[in-house]
C-alpha cells in the first residue's frame, strides 16, 4: 500500500459513509433490516459497560436484579470504594505511570524514527532492522530477566521499576519512521539554511507536521499503560505502588466477593478512558485507523 | 565546537544521527536484547533465585515436554487461537462491511462498537465474571432460569470455562478490528465498484472478486495481530479464575499463566524461562505460517 492510498482512507472514515453510489431516497427494506441488526449488535456490545455502570449506582440489595435502571441511583458504593483511600493512590499511580511512559515513548520513538528516516549514515538499516526485530519478542519472555534486573538494581516496588520497560517502543519507532517519510526534505533543508540545528529542525519543523501520527501513537501507548497488568503485578509488592488493574484484583480476594464494590472499582478504572473517548472521539478513531494501516 | 565546524555536511549528519540514537541504542541493548539473550541462557539453567544459577542442559525442556500439564496448557493456548481469531475476524468483518454502508447514526453506532476496546481488560474480566455467576448473582443464568432453561456453570465447567474466558477477549478486540477493516474498505477506490456495477455484477461477486482481494494487506495485518493477542492471553484468565487459577482441572490455563505461576509462585526461574522460549517459538512459527499463507497465493 502506498501512502497516497492510506492517508485519505483514514480521513475518509471521518467524512462519514462513502460506500459509493448516490444515496437512494426513501426506506429501502434491506437498509432498514441492516440498520436494525447493526443497532442491536451495538447495544449488545455496550451492555457489559452499561451493566457495570448500573451496578455501581445500585444499593447492595438491588444488585442481583436484572433491571438496568436502578430504583434509586446512589453514589453510596463510590463513597465506600473511595473512603478506603487506596483507590485514590492506585488511580494516581496509574495516571503518573501512563503519562510519564507515554511522554517518554512518544518522544524517543519520534526521535529514533526521524533519525532513521532523515539522516544518511552507515548502519542505519542495521539499527532499523535491530529495533524492528524486537517486535517479535513477546514481553512474557523478557519478564523474568527484567525482574532479575529490577531486583539487582533495587527497582522492585518503585515507579521506575514499573515504567522502565516501556520507555520506548519498537512499534512507535516504525510508525513514526513511516510518517516522517511523508515530510518533504525541502522543508528541512530550508530550516537548515535558516540556521537551525538538527535538533531544532526535528522539534520545531518536522514534529508539528506529524501531529496526527503523534496523537495516534500517544493514545495507543497511554491506553496500553493504563490497562497494563502482568508487569505491574509482578514488579510491585506493596499496595501503595499498585496500579488500578492490579489493585482491582486485591479488591475481591479479600473476604467474600462484594460485587457492587468490584463493579464500582471497575467503573472507576474505565470511566476516565470513556470520558477521553467521548471528547476526542474522531481523533481517536482516526488515529486507530492510521496506526493500523501503517502497522 | 571548532572540530564540529570543520566537518563536512555528511559527517555532521553522522554525528547528529548518533546523537539522536545514543540513548535509544543503549535502551534497546540493555532492556530488549540482553534480556532476550538472558532468557534463552536461563532456559538451560536451574535457578530458584536464592542459590547460584546452575547449568542443566536440556533438563528444563525435557521436564516440560514430559509434563501433562504443559500439554494441556499448550492445547488450551491453541484453542484460544483457533477459536478466537476466526470468530473475532468474521464478526468484525461482517459488522464493518455493513456499517460501512449505513448512513443513519453512522458515527454513533461506530462509537458504540468501538467502546469496549477502550475498557480495561482486568475491569471487564470482573464484569464478565459477575455475569457468569450462578443464580441469583449472575445475569446470564438469571435470564436462562427465567426462560425455564437450566443453569450453566460457565466458569466451573471444564467444557464451558474456556469459551467463557475467551468471550470477553473477543468482545474487547472487535472494536479495533472493525475500525481497521472499515479503513481498509475505504482505501479501495470507488471507481472499481462503479465499474463493477456498470457490468451488472452482483454484490456477492463484488465482495469476493474486488473487496476481499484488495483488502489482503489489512486482513494479513489483523490475522497476525489478533492471533498473537490470543496466544498471549493472560489478564482475562487470571482475573476470572482467581479462586482457582487456570480454571477447573486447568481447563482455561494458557501458556502465559503457566509461565507466571512457574516463575512467581514456584520461583523455578530456569523452568519458566524454558516455557517463555517455547512461547516465543510458537508465536514465531504461527506468524510466519500466516504470513506465508496470506501473502502469496
From TrEMBL, chain A:
GO cellular component term, pick one: plasma membrane
**Domain ABC transmembrane type-1 per the UniProt entry, residue ranges:** 91-280
Q: Where are the transmembrane segments?
A: 32-53, 90-113, 125-147, 159-180, 201-223, 261-280
Q: Does the keyword Transmembrane helix apply?
A: yes
Cell membrane as a keyword of this entry, yes or no, is yes
Could you tell me where this protein is found in the cell? Cell membrane
Q: What is its main location?
A: membrane
> Per the UniProt entry, what are the Gene Ontology biological process annotations, in alphabetical order?
transmembrane transport
Q: Indicate how the chain sits in the lipid bilayer.
A: Multi-pass membrane protein
The record's section on Pfam families has: BPD_transp_1
The cross-references to PROSITE patterns, in alphabetical order and at most eight, read: ABC_TM1 (PS50928)
Coiled coil residues, start to end: none
Provide the alphabetized UniProt keywords.
Cell membrane, Membrane, Transmembrane, Transmembrane helix, Transport
Taxonomic superkingdom: Bacteria
What the entry lists under CDD domains is as follows: TM_PBP2 (cd06261)
Family classification: Belongs to the binding-protein-dependent transport system permease family.
Name of the molecule in the record: Carbohydrate ABC transporter membrane protein 2, CUT1 family (TC 3.A.1.1.-)
Give the organism the record lists: Roseicitreum antarcticum
From TrEMBL, chain B:
**What keywords would UniProt list here?**
Cell membrane, Membrane, Transmembrane, Transmembrane helix, Transport
**One Pfam family recorded for the sequence:** BPD_transp_1
Task: Name the SUPFAM superfamilies on file.
Answer: MetI-like (SSF161098)
Gene3D superfamilies tied to this protein: MetI-like (1.10.3720.10)
- Looking at the UniProt entry, the stretches that span the membrane are 14-34, 78-99, 111-131, 169-193, 214-234, 272-294
Subcellular location, record wording: Cell membrane
A GO biological-process term: transmembrane transport
CDD domains reported in the protein's UniProt record: TM_PBP2
Instruction: Please report the record's description of how this protein sits within the membrane.
Output: Multi-pass membrane protein
Q: What is this protein called?
A: Carbohydrate ABC transporter membrane protein 1, CUT1 family (TC 3.A.1.1.-)
Lineage here is: Bacteria, Pseudomonadati, Pseudomonadota, Alphaproteobacteria, Rhodobacterales
Amino acid at each position: 500500500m502506498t501512502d497516497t492510498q492510506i492517508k485519505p482512507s483514514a480521513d475518509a472514515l471521518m467524512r462519514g459513509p462513502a460506500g459509493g453510489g448516490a444515496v437512494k431516497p426513501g426506506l429501502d427494506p434491506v437498509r432498514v433490516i441492516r440498520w436494525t441488526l447493526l443497532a442491536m449488535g451495538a447495544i449488545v456490545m455496550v451492555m457489559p459497560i452499561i451493566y457495570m455502570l448500573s451496578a455501581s449506582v445500585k444499593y447492595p440489595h438491588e444488585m442481583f436484579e436484572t433491571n438496568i435502571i436502578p430504583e434509586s441511583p446512589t453514589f453510596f458504593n463510590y463513597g465506600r470504594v473511595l473512603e478506603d483511600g487506596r483507590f485514590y493512590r492506585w488511580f494516581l499511580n496509574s495516571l503518573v505511570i501512563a503519562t510519564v511512559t507515554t511522554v517518554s515513548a512518544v518522544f524517543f520513538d519520534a526521535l529514533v524514527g526521524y533519525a532513521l528516516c532523515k539522516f544518511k549514515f552507515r548502519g542505519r538499516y542495521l539499527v532499523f532492522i535491530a529495533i524492528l526485530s524486537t517486535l517479535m519478542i513477546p514481553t512474557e519472555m523478557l519478564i523474568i530477566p527484567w525482574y532479575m534486573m529490577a531486583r539487582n538494581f533495587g527497582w522492585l516496588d518503585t515507579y521506575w521499576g514499573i515504567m522502565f520497560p516501556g520507555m520506548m517502543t519498537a512499534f512507535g519507532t516504525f510508525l513514526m519512521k513511516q510518517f516522517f517519510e511523508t515530510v518533504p526534505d525541502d522543508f528541512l533543508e530550508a530550516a537548515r539554511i535558516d540556521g537551525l540545528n538538527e535538533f531544532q529542525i526535528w522539534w520545531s519543523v518536522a514534529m508539528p507536521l506529524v501531529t496526527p501520527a503523534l496523537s495516534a501513537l500517544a493514545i495507543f501507548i497511554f491506553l496500553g499503560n493504563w490497562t497494563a497488568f502482568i508487569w505491574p503485578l509482578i514488579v510491585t509488592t506493596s499496595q501503595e505502588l499498585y496500579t488500578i488493574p492490579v489493585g482491582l484484583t486485591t479488591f475481591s480476594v479479600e473476604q467474600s466477593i462484594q460485587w457492587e464494590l468490584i463493579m464500582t472499582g471497575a467503573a472507576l478504572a474505565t470511566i476516565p478512558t470513556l470520558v477521553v473517548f467521548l471528547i476526542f472521539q474522531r481523533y481517536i478513531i482516526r488515529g486507530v485507523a492510521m496506526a493500523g494501516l501503517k502497522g | 565546537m571548532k572540530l564540529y565546524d570543520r566537518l563536512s555536511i555528511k559527517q555532521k549528519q553522522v554525528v547528529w544521527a548518533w546523537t539522536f540514537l545514543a540513548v535509544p541504542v543503549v535502551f534497546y541493548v540493555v532492556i530488549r536484547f540482553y534480556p532476550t539473550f538472558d532468557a534463552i541462557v536461563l532456559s538451560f539453567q536451574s535457578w530458584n533465585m536464592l542459590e547460584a544459577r546452575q547449568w542443566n542442559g536440556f533438563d528444563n525442556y525435557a521436564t516440560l515436554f514430559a509434563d501433562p500439564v504443559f500439554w494441556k496448557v499448550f492445547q488450551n493456548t491453541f484453542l484460544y487461537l483457533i477459536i478466537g481469531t476466526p470468530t473475532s475476524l468474521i464478526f468484525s468483518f461482517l459488522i464493518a462491511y455493513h456499517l460501512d454502508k449505513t448512513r443513519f447514526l453512522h458515527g454513533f453506532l461506530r462509537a458504540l462498537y468501538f467502546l469496549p476496546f477502550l475498557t480495561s481488560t482486568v475491569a471487564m474480566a470482573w464484569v464478565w465474571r459477575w455475569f457468569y455467576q450462578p443464580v441469583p448473582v449472575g445475569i446470564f443464568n438469571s435470564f436462562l432460569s427465567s426462560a425455564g432453561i437450566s443453569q450453566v456453570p460457565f466458569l466451573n465447567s471444564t467444557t464451558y470455562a474456556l469459551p467463557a474466558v475467551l468471550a470477553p477477549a473477543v468482545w474487547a478486540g472487535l472494536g479495533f478490528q472493525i475500525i481497521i477493516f472499515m479503513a481498509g474498505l475505504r482505501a479501495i477506490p470507488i471507481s472499481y465498484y462503479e465499474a463493477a456495477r456498470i457490468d451488472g455484477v452482483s454484490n456477492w461477486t463484488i465482495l469476493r472478486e474486488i473487496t476481499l482481494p484488495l483488502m489482503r494487506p489489512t486482513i494479513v495485518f489483523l490475522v497476525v495481530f489478533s492471533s498473537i493477542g490470543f496466544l498471549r492471553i493472560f489478564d482475562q484468565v487470571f482475573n476470572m479464575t482467581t479462586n482457582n487459577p487456570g480454571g477447573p482441572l486447568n481447563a482455561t490455563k494458557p501458556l502465559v499463566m503457566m509461565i507466571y505461576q512457574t516463575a512467581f509462585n514456584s520461583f523455578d526461574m530456569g523452568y519458566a524461562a524454558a516455557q517463555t522460549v517455547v512461547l516465543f517459538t510458537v508465536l514465531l512459527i504461527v506468524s510466519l505460517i500466516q504470513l506465508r499463507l496470506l501473502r502469496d497465493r
